[in-house]
Specification:
Chain lengths: ~270, ~160
């Protein structure tokens, strides 16, 4: 656990940003990840008084405040309806309910952790991050950026018509994932996001001629092979790079079959 | 720094260090049912309710509880005793070390979902580790408890 000399519950984002420019000061989100560190923090900057623990919905988008918890996105009916339950599926194995009542979307996305289920699923969606100084930028771009001292204010998920599916493999149920995979079928695009490779999630757009083929086991397997060929894989104590490559083919195939199933379900509801 | 916390229904003001964890705060106020079982936010033994939501008290600062209500097993005696006594009679546990966190989270689950399925129980309690029971006894205990409640409510 880190130590902190001061704790300030800020009154504005500007105050938080000013404090955050000093390297020894740190923003605390849910604190779960930070707690694993042993450093000394001069001032812990608390955003919890800024009403950022909200999920706002309009006709065009969901705006998830940085202090919204993983449990909030897990149990949000409309967000899960829009993502075909993929958001719930992505976070439901993260440790436990008590943990997810604390861990924040802001900390999860700002951290850009390689293993992140949260980053993987939101990257398949049409998502952007709202940064206090830099403004709104696509999540896929943000995921590649270097860490800086800006503040992540919210994550915006646009309601671009799409169907989603989510898969992960874990060695044991609530452990960090060995591989994460989200698929999103848009009108003109099929996006796959694969994380825990073990590096952070990356999105792959499937070429049109492959994405528009009739979906069946063979097409799904071909898409799986394509996705694996576009990504790099590494080894860590949870799995080898070769195993992750193989899992990518399998999970992408299953995720594509699930997308097709979700589509059929939708048709039969009409 | 000064914080005002309603602990088990009693509002109190305390002077805490900025990095004091909620678990140390509640224990310092006599709530010794709340225990530390790991250093990694994984075991669920330290579960308390923060504004009625179950959280890991080992992973949140006491300062975050300022202006909020905190409930531990000590404050839930009535609600907890029926279930805790039932699972004890069922022999659902062995050493009982995990019991306070387990009972707290079962209460949270039943408040959210009074009649959960087996799958829902497993999912809700996945963050409560038990080193001796293998979970089967606990699961059987909860299912029997729900069954007993259902039958009692029918009478
Ligand atoms: C034991 C354990 C198991 C986990 N398992 C999984 C898993 O299986 N899958 C998964 O996806 N994730 C997992 N995680 C990660 C977890 O879900 C969160 O993503 C992580 O804890 C970060 O969220 P937080 O709210 O705790 O952030 P914090 O720990 O509070 O902060 C993380 C970092 O982000 C910064 N920060 C926080 N909020 C902001 C903001 N608004 N603007 C700018 N900077 C900010 C902090 O300064 C810090 O550097 C696990 C974490 C732990 C500790
Ligand atoms: S002591 Fe283990 S999760 Fe809190
Ligand atoms: S009964 Fe011993 S830890 Fe659960």
């Amino acid at each position: 656990m880190f130590s902190a000399a001061n704790y300030i519950k800020v009154k504005s984002l500007e105050e938080a940003w000013q404090l955050n420019q000093k390297r020894s000061n740190k923003i605390i989100g849910g604190m779960l990840w930070m707690k694993m560190g042993k450093g000394r923090i001069q001032t812990a900057i608390d955003l919890s008084g800024l009403e950022l623990d909200r999920i706002e919905e309009t006709d065009e988008y969901f705006k998830i405040g940085c202090m919204a918890t993983l449990r909030m996105i897990e149990t949000h009916p409309e967000l899960n309806r829009y993502t075909s339950g993929a958001v719930r599926e992505a976070v439901k194995n993260i440790v436990g309910v008590q943990f997810r009542n604390l861990a924040t979307v802001g900390g999860s996305i700002f951290g850009r952790y390689g293993f992140s289920d949260v980053l993987t699923v939101l990257m398949a969606a049409d998502s952007s991050v709202e940064l206090y100084k830099r403004g709104i930028i696509p999540l896929r771009e943000f995921a590649e950026m270097k860490y800086d001292n800006d503040i992540l204010v919210s994550v915006i998920v646009r309601k671009t018509p799409a169907r989603f599916s989510y898969m992960s493999v874990r060695n044991s149920k609530t452990d960090f994932p060995v591989l994460t995979c989200a698929a999103a079928r848009y009108e003109n695009e099929l996006i796959l996001s694969v994380g825990a490779r073990p590096s952070r999630a990356k999105a792959v757009s499937v070429p049109e001629e492959l994405a528009n083929k009739m979906m069946n086991e063979d097409t799904a397997a071909e898409i799986g092979r394509y996705a694996a060929s576009q990504l790099s894989f590494g080894s860590n104590l949870r799995a080898s790079g070769a195993y992750r490559r193989h899992l990518t083919e399998v999970l992408v195939k299953r995720a594509c079959m699930k997308l097709a199933e979700n589509g059929e379900e939708e048709k039969s509801c009409l | 720094m000064l914080i005002t916390v309603t602990l088990n229904g009693k509002k109190q003001q305390s002077d805490v260090e900025p990095d004091m964890l909620l678990i140390d705060f509640v224990r310092a106020h006599g709530c010794l049912s709340v225990k530390r079982g790991c250093e990694t936010s994984n075991c669920g033994l330290c579960t308390v309710f923060l504004d009625d939501k179950p959280v890991l008290s080992c992973s949140v600062l006491a300062a975050r509880a300022d202006g909020k209500s905190v409930t531990t097993l000590e404050g839930l005696q009535e609600e907890a005793s029926e279930f805790a006594e039932f699972v004890a009679d069922q022999g659902a546990e062995q050493c009982g070390f995990c019991n306070p966190g387990f009972v707290m989270n079962v209460i949270a689950m039943l408040r959210e979902n009074p009649d959960p399925s087996e799958e829902e129980i497993k999912e809700y309690l996945a963050g409560n580790l038990c080193r001796c029971s293998g979970y089967e006894g606990q699961l059987r205990g909860i299912l029997n408890f729900l069954d007993m409640r259902r039958r009692r409510d029918q009478i």
